[in-house]
């Protein structure tokens, strides 16, 4: 069985933060390039490996691919849409299912052409990555709303080159502005928020400020990144709040949207009640919707 994966989903999957190619981790991905070798060497998606055939026609995966410990296996050619449009792709999918017991292989919709157009900075001619290289690999913020809203966790780098590549025009920091001369990348617009993790009810004011700020940036055609630091991780709550207040999503829908983007997301139970209040107000509901543990796991 195979299904397609869109370029934004793959972008987010590649930026989950798994540093070891051998880690048995559900965020880890084996990305296979089935184009001609010359095309692969000229440029390919970062961390993709090239498959080839032996002299007898049998397929061969590069050493260290270790498909047995990968939760996600994705495959692409130049313009891939369906496996039956590419013999090499169809052969590789059959090989993986037969020899490595895979029941699902994802095909990159639009292939390398579409991905490289959307995320040229995620493409490279580099072929070999050692484990120590992956440990210092630059991860980009998650893309929550295509070409508009991003979420940066402590694992993500946001130097000026990242801001330039993503064309970020505004940043929402989930903490007060640091005192002193700390050098932070600054686009045209910034918003610093006072968030007290010890007082869940205090999140309402930052939610209102963030939603107004992000909405104003969207009207201007901007791009916004919400930034957490290692001590204050309320960015996911603010992101869901925007999806509820401005995108018309329910709390459950906002959670599922972010969960598909950030696979390791865990609920901030202390903030769910505040988001339920926001949902009631935004959707004019007679009462808050019940929060069930099973809906947020």
From TrEMBL:
Residues 25-124 form the Rhodanese domain. Signal peptide: none annotated. It comes from the Eukaryota. GO terms for cellular component: mitochondrion. It holds the Pfam family Rhodanese. One of its GO terms (biological process) is positive regulation of intrinsic apoptotic signaling pathway. InterPro entries: Prot-tyrosine_phosphatase-like, Rhodanese-like_dom, Rhodanese-like_dom_sf, STY_interacting-like. This is Rhodanese domain-containing protein.
């Amino acid at each position: 069985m195979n299904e397609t994966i869109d370029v934004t989903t793959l972008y987010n999957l590649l930026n989950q933060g798994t540093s070891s190619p051998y880690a048995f981790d559900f965020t880890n991905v084996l990305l296979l390039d089935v184009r001609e070798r010359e095309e692969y060497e000229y440029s390919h998606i970062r961390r993709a490996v090239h498959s080839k055939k032996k002299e007898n026609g049998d397929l061969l995966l590069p050493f260290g691919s270790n498909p047995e410990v990968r939760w996600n296996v994705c495959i692409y050619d130049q313009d891939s849409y369906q496996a039956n449009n590419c013999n090499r792709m169809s052969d590789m999918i059959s090989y993986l299912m037969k020899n490595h017991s895979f029941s699902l292989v994802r095909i990159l919709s639009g292939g390398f052409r579409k991905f490289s157009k959307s995320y040229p900075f995620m493409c490279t001619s580099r072929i070999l990555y050692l484990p120590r290289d992956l440990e210092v690999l630059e991860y980009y913020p998650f893309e929550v709303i295509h070409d508009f809203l991003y979420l940066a966790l402590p694992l993500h780098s946001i130097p000026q080159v990242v801001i330039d590549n993503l064309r970020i025009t505004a940043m929402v920091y989930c903490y007060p502005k640091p005192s002193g001369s700390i050098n932070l990348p600054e686009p045209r617009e910034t918003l610093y928020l006072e968030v007290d993790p010890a007082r869940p009810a205090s999140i309402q004011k930052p939610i209102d400020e963030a939603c107004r700020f992000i909405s104003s940036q969207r009207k201007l055609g901007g791009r916004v990144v919400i930034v957490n630091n290692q001590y204050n991780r309320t960015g996911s709550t603010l992101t869901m709040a925007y999806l509820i207040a401005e995108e018309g999503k329910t709390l459950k829908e906002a959670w599922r949207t972010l969960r598909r983007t950030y696979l390791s997301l865990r609920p901030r139970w202390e903030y769910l009640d505040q988001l339920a209040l926001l949902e009631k107000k935004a959707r004019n509901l007679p009462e808050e919707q019940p929060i069930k543990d099973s809906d947020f796991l």
